[in-house]
């Protein structure tokens, strides 16, 4: 069993069509009801698709091969994702389970402190974590965020105003920031 994703044997996924392309949420079930769904990941590449077949510019920084079975995602989760892309939802209310180091989890959960339509810097993130010298480590943890959009790592930019990196590509990061900015006017 994998330490980073202890639920991989029960991993499911579905496809949500968004204005930015297909989004692939992965999830596990704990029980047999819709309220027993926990997201474990979300990304713009189908789970299990090898990054070797992708062009270098579209290849994510982290590309684990995940064995997942396609299964319909509950409508309330799809509805929240679509409401976000329509500019109607500012904060997700979807249960999730994240696997990573303690530092990574702390980084990812801190992202929820960044308000919709706003940005913070990598330096702010490091200071918020109480480790002002961990700017680079924080950035690396953001690159491994299993739930981008849900845990909004796209809201973290460089101190000089440049976008920095994003696991799904700078174009996606720019469009997410624009969507939030114009929806919050």
Order of helices and strands: EEEEEHHEHHEH
Describe the sheet with the most strands. 5 strands, mixed
Distance between the termini: 47 Å
Structural shape: globular
Total beta-strand segments: 7
Q: Determine the CATH superfamily of the largest domain.
A: Winged helix-like DNA-binding domain superfamily/Winged helix DNA-binding domain
What's the CATH architecture of the largest domain? Orthogonal Bundle
The proportion of strand residues reads 5-15%
Description:
- The chain is of the alpha/beta class and 185 residues long.
- It is 27% helix and 15% strand.
- The protein has helices spanning 75-85, 102-110, 122-128, 135-143, 170-183; strands at residues 12-13, 16-18, 21-29, 37-43, 69-70, 120-121, 156-157.
- The strands form 2 sheets. Strands 1, 2, 3, 4 and 5 form a 5-stranded mixed beta sheet that branches. A two-stranded parallel ribbon has the order 6-7.
- β3 and β4 form a beta hairpin.
- α3 packs across α4 (135-143).
State the gist of this model.
The chain is of the alpha/beta class. The chain contains five helices and seven strands. β3 and β4 form a beta hairpin.
